[in-house]
Amino acid sequence: EGSDAAAIGRFVKATEAYTVMTNADRKRVYEASGSEGLFRRLAGPRFEDPMRDAYKLELEFKTGHFEMEFGFREGQKKSTGNVHHNLKIPLLGFYQGFTMDVAIVRSELCSMCNGTGAAQDAEMLTCHKCTGTGKLATASHWRSKRARRERREGGFDQTVTLGCRRCLGSGKLPSEPCPGCKGERTVDGQTSVKVVVEPGVLEGQSYTFKEQAEQAPDAVSGDVVLHVGAEEHEDFEREGNDLVCRRNITLAQALLGFKMVVTHLDGREIDIERDEVTKPGQDHVVAGMGMPIHGKP
Question: Which of 145, 187, 226, 294 is the most buried (most CB within 10 A)?
Fold first, then answer.
C-alpha cells in the first residue's frame, strides 16, 4: 500500500541518518562536507536505496525482515567522489581575463607502500574484526511509535551492513604497518591546478579537473570542480554583461544637469554629462562600456 511504502521510505532515511549521527567520525565529516563528502569516504561508502527494487521491497515488507547494505556492490567501480570549491576573483578578472594557480589539499596514496598500508616484508593477515569479509552486520528490531505506545507486537527486523572500518573493507590487515603512513594507506598531500578565466565569462562558471580529488586504495579519484565568482567592487556591480555604477547627486544637479567623471575597472576615465532633468533612480547608459561578450572579439 502507498502509506506502507511511504512509512518504509521514512524508516530507510531515519536508519541512514542514525548510522551517521551515532558515529563521531561520520558525523564530523557530514557536518564539514555534507552527504557527498561523507559518501566519498570508502569507510562509509555509498548507500544503495532498497526502494529501487519493488519486488525485494514487497518481499521484505511481507516477511518483516528488512536488509540494507551500505557499500559498493561487488564489481562496482569505486570512486572517492567529486569535490566542489568556490573561488572569488576581482571583478577586473572577468573584464580583462584572469589566470591563477590553485593548490588542492588532498589525501594521496602512500608512496612507501603504494596504498597497501603494509611494511615492505609484512604479511597480509585476515582482519579479526570482520573475519575477512570486509563487512559488519548489525541486527535490530524496529516498530512504529504508535505500536510502541500501544505496546503492540509487529514491526520489522532490520539488518544494516557497513564496510569494516578496521580494514576499510579489504578484509586484510598487515602484520606490520607501513612506517610512512602508519598503516593508514594514505598521507596528506597537495596538487596544483591552473584556472584560466577568459574575458566576459559569467560568474558561477565551473572549471573541472578530472581525477584530481582525493586518492584512495582501489578507487578512482573524483574530479575537482571550481566555481568562480567575483569579489565585491567598491564602485561597480555586474548585471549580466552590463556594469552598473550608482551615484548620488544633489537636487540642483538633478534639475539643472551635471558633469562627472567615472573611473572604469581598467582605469580609463569616462566623462558623464547631462543637461536635462534627472529623475530619482533614472539610468544613464554609456553604450559599449560594459563587460566584454565572452567568445566575441
Answer: 226
Three-class SS state of 98: strand
Q: Is pLDDT at 240 greater than 50 in this prediction?
A: yes
The residue written with cell numbers 571550481 in the block is 226
Neighbour-count burial of 138, counting CB atoms closer than 10 A to its CB (0-12 exposed, 13-18 middle, 19+ buried): exposed
Please answer whether residues 9 and 51 qualify as being in contact, where contact means their C-beta atoms are separated by less than 8 angstroms: yes
**Length of the chain, in residues:** 297
pLDDT at residue 165, as a whole number = 81
C-beta of residue 229 within 8 angstroms of C-beta of residue 84: no
Helix and strand numbers (H, E) in the chain are 6, 14
Q: Mean pLDDT, to the nearest integer, of 33-52?
A: 48
Cα–Cα nearest to 50, from 153, 178, 195, 156: 156
pLDDT band per the 50, 70, 90 thresholds, residue 164: confident
Q: How far apart are the first and last CA of the chain?
A: 62
